[in-house]
Amino acid sequence: MEKRPSSGIWGGLHCFLEFANSDEARTYVAQQGWLGHEQQLESFTHVFSHFQLTITPLMFRITNAVNFAADTSLIRYDLADEPEVGLAAPTKKLLKQLKKHLADASA
């Protein structure tokens, strides 16, 4: 996850990386040298007072995060632990969805 800028939407909260489309996400993952498997999770809509945001999450199972430690703007989040940082509402929803998906996959 990354910490958002202090001003603007979800200011100062931690969120998953955000991309305009799936191709941008794939390009970012490839540029980092991360290898893994991609899977699209269930899309959902987050409603604001003046607009709606449709979120289509992609999950990448990364097998080698070689450059992760070098990027200090990112934090790792262990699904088994409670978050110790502020999270935006859609991020909390995504975490629940991800935990359920992983639990179902291992059952």
Task: Provide keyphrases for this structure.
26% helix, two-stranded antiparallel sheet, 107 residues, alpha+beta, Nucleoside Triphosphate Pyrophosphohydrolase, globular, two-stranded antiparallel ribbon
Say what the CATH topology is. Nucleoside Triphosphate Pyrophosphohydrolase
Which CATH class applies here? Alpha Beta
Shape: globular
> Helix amount, in percent?
25-40%
What percentage of amino acids are in beta strands?
15-25%
Summarize the main sheet.
Answer: 2 strands, antiparallel
CATH architecture grouping = Alpha-Beta Complex
Counting structural domains, the number is: 1
Cα(first) to Cα(last) distance is: 27 Å
Radius of gyration: 14 Å
The class by helix and strand makeup works out as: alpha+beta
Number of helices: 2
Give unreliable regions as ranges.
none
Question: Could you describe the 3D structure shown?
Answer:
The chain is an alpha+beta fold and 107 residues long. The protein has a single domain, classed as Nucleoside Triphosphate Pyrophosphohydrolase. Helix content is 26%, strand content 21%. The protein has 2 helices and 6 strands; from the N terminus they run ββαββββα. It has helices spanning 22-31, 89-106; strands at residues 2-3, 14-15, 36-40, 44-47, 52-55, 58-62. It is globular, with a radius of gyration of 14 Å. The mean pLDDT is 83.
